[in-house]
Amino acid sequence: MPADDSSDIHCRLDELLEARGMTLTELSRQVGVSLVNLSVLKNDRAKAIRFSTLTAICNALECEVGELLVTVHGA
Fold this sequence. Notes:
Elements: E1 9-11, H1 13-20, H2 24-31, H3 35-42, H4 51-61, H5 65-68, E2 69-71
Antiparallel strand pairs: 1-2
């Protein structure tokens, strides 16, 4: 199977932020991650994420990892 840059993982950051009435800027302040890096994650362009960052985002959004990152089947 040829390697490519696509991933079957989708980040639901937009939906979770909207549901909580929080902006990306506010999340950035709370978790100590730059807006640029959160935007890369939000737009499914991230290649990796540190567990500490993932934990901080989930704590700030009061969610589980499986609510933030989902597998897209048939992508």
